């Protein structure tokens, strides 16, 4: 069974551990003390009773006539009982089949057959504690012996005297001991909880400091350090944390320096390549115009150079765009536009209108404040990616989705009917220069198109996800926030409209 969350904390566990240790210690100590005190109380009472009982019996035994008769046994039992009037002794004297008690009609029910037999076979006093009718009593049996001359071994006379005395006083003393142990246990537990709180505070203070420091580092403050106090294990932990934090800070700083150098290098190279590429593009344009008068092999070579020059130009432009995102220099030039008209213009400018089916709202219905150039890049990259890697039919949908608490959002979906995106590739489709094993053939893509698309979407405050359709094919979904007053009434959420 899983413990509740509040019982899994270190503070609670320390308190419970200290309380359990204190409880076990208190109960063990109290139990041992009670046991020893109980034995001492009962032993002292028992020894005192047996000693006085023997003295009184010895003092009165010489008055008995031997062998005794019934009257003699009764007189003897009464005299022994009267010798301790304050103790309420009850005495039974026996000889053979004769017996007499100090009180008339006393059944002497506390006397057990085992004790009676033991007295008959021994020369020393025998005792037993019994409980009768809820009252604890001490029963002592003493055989009466005689010797014919001093120094001779005493012989059993056949007479025995039994004493029963209530131990109510001793019971009260034992009950008082139990109460004292109980009263001592509660303060011990309270002291243990107080000590546990103090110990937990001392242990948890550096643990809390470590937790705050770890959260601070997770938030990016890598210069966070802990103060090291003492030389215990927690101090060693704090010292190890500081060493780890220092090493991590140095490693991250070095990585950032390397990343900055790499970004600067890419930006510088891209910028330097633009001038010669512009000249090369101008030359290839001239060669393309003259290709009809060139030989077949020369025309093929000219076409290849022109295509590769265009690919290189696109790659340099993409690198320049990425470098602006990395440098934080990319900005939005917002304008309120008709999104459906912008999408149609993007498709028409690239001659994709006949290759891509559209589900767009009517003109003038869906308007929003976006950057027209960046919206064009988003749509062009997604549709171009579907044309290169997917299969027809390819469809583009544009509609509005209402997000509770976030306002309306324009949704652009690009769907194809190809094999879809492998599951192991999905997490990386927006990574720079990433190509799956199935797509490592040379294509006209730079490997930066989807990364640039994702950056443009994020720049608008939106989101983009890639997935696979249940019926087959990939789907890319873009959401871009819109101003509420930029969306006209009458367009249902998720509505679809065919372009005329």
Question: Tags for this entry?
Answer:
Beta-Lactamase; two-component regulatory system; transferase; alpha+beta; 17% strand; rod-shaped; single chain; Helix Hairpins; 500 residues
Describe the structure concisely.
The protein has helices at 10-61, 70-82, 113-121, 168-218, 233-290, 296-327, 339-349, 372-389, 449-459; strands at residues 90-95, 98-101, 126-132, 135-146, 155-166, 335-338, 356-359, 367-370, 394-403, 407-415, 463-468, 474-481. It is α+β, with helices and mostly antiparallel strands and 500 residues long.
CATH architecture annotation of the largest domain: 2-Layer Sandwich
- Strand and helix order: HHEEHEEEHHHEHEEHEEHEE
Radius of gyration: 52 Å
Q: Figure out the total of helices.
A: 9
The proportion of residues in beta strands is 15-25%
How many individual β-strands?
12
Report the uncertain regions.
437-442, 484-500
The average pLDDT score comes to 78
Question: What's the N-to-C terminus distance?
Answer: 64 Å
- Which of globular, elongated, flat, extended, rod-shaped describes the shape? rod-shaped
Instruction: Say what the CATH topology of the largest domain is.
Output: Heat Shock Protein 90
CATH class of the largest domain: Alpha Beta
Task: State the fourth-level CATH superfamily of the largest domain.
Answer: Histidine kinase-like ATPase, C-terminal domain
Order of strands in the sheet with most strands: 2-1-5-4-3
Give the total of domains. 4
Please give the share of residues in helix.
40-55%
Query: Largest beta sheet, briefly?
Result: 5 strands, antiparallel
Helical/strand content category: alpha+beta
Subcellular location: Cell membrane
Catalytic activity: ATP + protein L-histidine = ADP + protein N-phospho-L-histidine
Domain Histidine kinase: 268-484
EC number: 2.7.13.3
């Amino acid at each position: 069974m899983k413990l509740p969350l509040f019982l899994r904390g270190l503070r609670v566990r320390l308190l419970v551990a200290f309380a359990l240790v204190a409880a076990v210690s208190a109960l063990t100590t109290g139990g041992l003390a009670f046991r020893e005190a109980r034995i001492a109380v009962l032993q002292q009472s028992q020894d005192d009773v047996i000693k006085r009982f023997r003295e009184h019996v010895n003092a009165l035994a010489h008055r008995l006539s031997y062998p005794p008769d019934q009257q003699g046994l009764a007189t003897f039992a009464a005299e022994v009982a009267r010798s301790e009037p304050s103790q309420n002794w009850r005495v039974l004297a026996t000889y053979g089949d004769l017996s007499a008690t100090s009180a008339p009609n006393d059944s002497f029910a506390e006397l057990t057959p085992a004790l009676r037999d033991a007295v008959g076979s021994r020369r020393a006093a025998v005792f037993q504690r019994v409980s009768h009718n809820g009252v604890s009593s001490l029963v002592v049996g003493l055989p009466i012996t005689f010797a014919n001359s001093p120094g001779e071994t005493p012989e059993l006379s056949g007479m025995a005297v039994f004493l029963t005395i209530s131990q109510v006083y001793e019971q009260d003393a034992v009950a008082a001991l139990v109460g004292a142990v109980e009263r001592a246990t509660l303060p011990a537990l309270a002291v243990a909880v107080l000590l546990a709180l103090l110990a937990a505070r001392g242990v948890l203070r550096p643990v809390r400091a470590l937790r705050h420091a770890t959260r601070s580092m997770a938030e990016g403050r890598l210069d966070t350090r802990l103060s090291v106090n003492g030389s215990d294990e927690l101090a060693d932990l704090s010292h190890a944390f500081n060493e780890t934090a220092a090493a991590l800070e140095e490693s991250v700083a070095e990585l950032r320096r390397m990343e900055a150098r790499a970004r600067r290098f890419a930006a510088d190279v891209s910028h330097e390549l633009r001038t010669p590429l512009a000249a090369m593009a101008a030359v290839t344009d001239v060669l393309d115009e003259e290709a009809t008068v060139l030989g077949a092999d020369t025309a093929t070579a000219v076409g290849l150079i022109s295509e590769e020059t265009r690919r290189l130009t696109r790659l340099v432009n993409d690198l320049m765009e990425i470098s602006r995102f990395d440098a934080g220099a990319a900005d939005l030039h917002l304008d309120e536009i008709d999104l459906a008209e912008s999408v149609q213009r993007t498709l028409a400018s690239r001659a994709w209108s006949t290759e891509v089916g559209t589900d767009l709202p009517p003109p003038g219905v869906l308007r929003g404040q976006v950057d027209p150039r960046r919206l064009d890049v988003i749509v062009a990259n997604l549709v171009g990616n579907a044309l290169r890697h997917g299969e027809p039919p390819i469809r583009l949908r544009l509609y509005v989705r209402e997000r509770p608490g976030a306002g309306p959002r324009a949704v652009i979906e690009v769907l194809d009917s190809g094999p879809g995106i492998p599951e192991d590739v999905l997490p990386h489709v927006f990574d720079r220069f990433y190509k799956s094993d199935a797509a490592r053939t040379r294509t006209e893509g730079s490997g930066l198109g989807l990364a640039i698309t994702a950056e443009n979407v994020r720049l608008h405050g939106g989101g983009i996800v890639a997935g696979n359709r249940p019926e087959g094919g990939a789907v890319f979904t873009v959401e871009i926030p819109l101003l509420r007053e930029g969306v006209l009434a009458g367009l249902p959420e998720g509505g679809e409209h065919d372009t005329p």
